[in-house]
Structure formats: C-alpha cells, structure tokens
Amino acid sequence: MAAVLRGSRYLVGRSFNHGAFAFVSSRSMASKTPVGFVGLGNMGNPMAKNLLKHGYPIIATDVFPESCKEVQELGAQIVDSPAEVADKADRIITMLPSSPNVMEVYTGSNGILKKVKKGSLLIDSSTIDPTVSKEMAAAAEKMGAVFMDAPVSGGVGAASSAKLTFMVGGAEEEFTAAKELLSCMGANVVYCGQVGTGQAAKICNNMLLAIGMIGTAETMNLGIRLGLDPKLLAKILNMSSGRCWSSDTYNPVPGVMEGVPSGNNYQGGFGTQLMAKDLGLAQNTATNTKTPVPLGSLAHQIYRMMCARGYASKDFSSVFAFLREEEGQQ
User: Fold this and answer.
1) Which CATH architecture does the domain made up of 201-324 adopt?
2) Domain boundaries, the chain
3) Per the record, what is one GO cellular component (predicted)?
4) Which tens digits make up the pLDDT trace of 196-224?
5) Active-site residue, from 202, 235, 290, 314
6) pLDDT tens, 266-290?
7) What's this model's pTM, rounded to 2 decimal places?
8) Which of 68, 170, 256, 278 gives 206 a disulfide partner, CB atoms 3.0 to 4.6 angstroms apart?
C-alpha cells in the first residue's frame, strides 16, 4: 500500500549532473518531493549532501544545531525535531549513533512517529541491535508507515563520494522505493531480507573488520620490530595471501598510506567507541543465538580497553598505536 501511495514519485527521471551544487537547477529541485533526514554527523552530513546533489529538497534536523549549518547553506530546510521532519516529508532517512538514539528519534515525545503520515517510508541507516529495528518496524506499521533498516559500510570517505554499501532489510516490495534514494548515496544497495537482516549483515561485517584490523596492526608491528620497513612489509602483504582491506586500503601504520586516518593522528574515520559499540552488538547477538565467536570476543575486549585508555574518539585503526603503547609498558 505504501508503495502505491508514493508511486507518483517514480515517474520523475533521475538523470542529473553529479558535479557541484551549482548545477542543481530550480527545475530539478522542484521536480522531486522533499526527503527528511535526521542525524547530520560524520556520516549523515555527506549523505544528505549527496541527496541535495541529486536534486532532492532536504528537510533535516540534528540534536546539535551546529551540525546543520553546512547542509542549510546548501539549501536544506532545518527544523527543530524529528516530528517536524515527519510532518513535512513522507520519505525519511535516519543516521544515528546507537539503539537508544534510534528509539528516541522514532518513538520519543518529539519523535517521527508522533507526526508520521500514512504511507511514509522510513529508512534507518544507523547500526543498531536487529531487535530494535524490528521493534521500530512494528511501531511504524501501527501508524501506517513502512520502516526499513539500511546500515552502511564504507566510512566517511565512501559517504562523501557516494560509494557506500547499503544492506537493506524490510518488505521486498518496498525495496525499489528505498533503492531510489539509497543509490544517490551509495554504489551498492543490497536487499538482505526482512527487517533486521540488514543490521545482521552489518554486524557480521564489522566484527570481521575489527578482527582484520587487529591482525593487520599486530602483523605490521611484529614486522617493524623484526627490522622490516613498514612500506615494504605492506607491499609484500598486499601481493600475498595475507592481503586484506585493513592492509591495502586502510593501513593502520602512520606513513604507509596517504589519505587515511593513520596519516592524520587517527583523526576522522570510524571511531574506536563506535567499533566497540558494534562489537558489543555482535556479542549480544552471538549470545542470543548461542554462536561461538572467540576472536570477536577478544576484539571487543581490546576495543573496550582502548576506549578506557583515551582512544575512544580516535579512528579504530589506532589499535596499532595502542599495541605500541602496550609494548612500551612491558
């Protein structure tokens, strides 16, 4: 039913110059109905900008008003609450830090579901507990709206360049409607199954990412201690069977690669605190499903220790610096 109510939107063509905002004509902006966006942090900000680039008028809000300035300057309308967003738009994307934030934004006193229109499409790109996604979907359904979980992989760089991967869970008949918007922000939009399966895929991915990053950091540190030049070691790993994303795209050793957090004192990127949170979600789901994840458990412990040692706001690749600090204490 929701897809039918929104059907008129898909008659609009999507050809558009992907360049600067100056190329967005007033006719292009007028041809597409507004999209709501809640959460304009490190990920949400560039995602909303990419929707603007594709000609979608944006109605946005964030708990921190200063986070809204950039998109406001680019033409977004800023409102005071998620409820106001829902009052003005019937397609809404949320990008929030944690399960409690999502619950507040959707079901709180000024939440989306207070003003949501029947037939609205609600897409949550936060990484949260799959059971919370299912709870939000049930609450949205009671209001006549459709909720889909669509967490992302790729980090801030991919968000800026519209090369994210979206893992989508929800009613299959709504996937086309969701993909129209998500394709403006990502290179890959994958349907995973019913509500919660997108979160399941994301949690599994991030557990492997954490394990791989720790392994890469340990390997690089060992090689350096054995006298190998870090750039040479990285080159050898990346042409050998040990190659992985953490070694060839996001190397944790300062000076090995340009344009990654390790080359900028581990600023930007994906925070250690967020990685610890995602690993906690993996641990919870593993416990609930009685699934053994010994390496995932160790990774969770390491990232929790890092948070306690002052690395919480640094990129998760700072595990290399953490290991170096640990060896200095021995």
Assistant:
1) Orthogonal Bundle (1.10)
2) 35-193, 201-324
3) mitochondrion
4) 999 999 999 999 999 999 999 999 999 99
5) 202
6) 998 899 999 999 999 999 999 999 9
7) 0.85
8) 278
